[in-house]
Amino acid sequence: MINPFDDTYFMKKALQEAELAYEKGEIPVGAIIVVKDRVIARTHNLTELLNDVTAHAEMQAITSAANFLGGKYLLNCTLYVTLEPCQMCAGALYWSQISKVVYGASDVQRGFNTMGTQLHPKTEVVGGVLAEEASALMKRFFIEKRNLN
Amino acid sequence: MINPFDDTYFMKKALQEAELAYEKGEIPVGAIIVVKDRVIARTHNLTELLNDVTAHAEMQAITSAANFLGGKYLLNCTLYVTLEPCQMCAGALYWSQISKVVYGASDVQRGFNTMGTQLHPKTEVVGGVLAEEASALMKRFFIEKRNLN
Lengths: 149, 149
Known about the structure:
five-stranded mixed beta sheet, EC 3.5.4.33 (chains A, B), Cytidine Deaminase, domain 2, 5 strands, alpha/beta, homodimer, hydrolase (chains A, B), tRNA-specific adenosine-34 deaminase activity (chains A, B), metal-binding (chains A, B), 5 helices
């Protein structure tokens, strides 16, 4: 039997969040957190709107999911995020002991792989899910931003 | 003329915040952010109370200072924090482009130096200010916690 709830299914929901960020003029990154095929957090980047460098989609998702669960450790949780997490977000994911992280596009400049940030040994990582879609949205954002300035 | 507003002066204020965390049963880390000898943020670790791994003193201080300044970049700001920042907090400080980071005790296990997290090239770093006081408070906390369990 085909399982409709695969990584692509949930990454599409993270991409919808990235589109909401895009519409607000934010760097378009979206995230969701899932437990047992249930979405418990939906967030997108709000650094401009909140004037806060810590307001990345992943950071909000971690806070939101912990609030939903009533505990700070995100055991049995999977984060779907459209862009590879940065040092800050990977550091937060480390503390959360999250079970799985799935990201879309790679961030070769500021992503945790390039920066050498450590995730928790318990955390499984999958990259490249709907990477082209996430990347295309980022490119559209930066091209439009450049043309406006 | 002696300047009363030196790093030790401000670190004492960060230590006062760490003591507030201690009284709440939180790992006792405190932080303040200063602009032109004026304290614009005072925070302490609240990860237990908020059930949120992202509620480190530094993260709250960055959000609070940016809110006060009305902008997300912490130019001309100095963070005083009683413990060496972790990957997450160093990653957030990177994005903030903060001018100076002063920390007390080193965290040889989880500190950004050991973990290899990059701060912004603009950021000056000073470690070891009132390190013994900060370290003694941490030790007291963990000894008491062990005895309670």
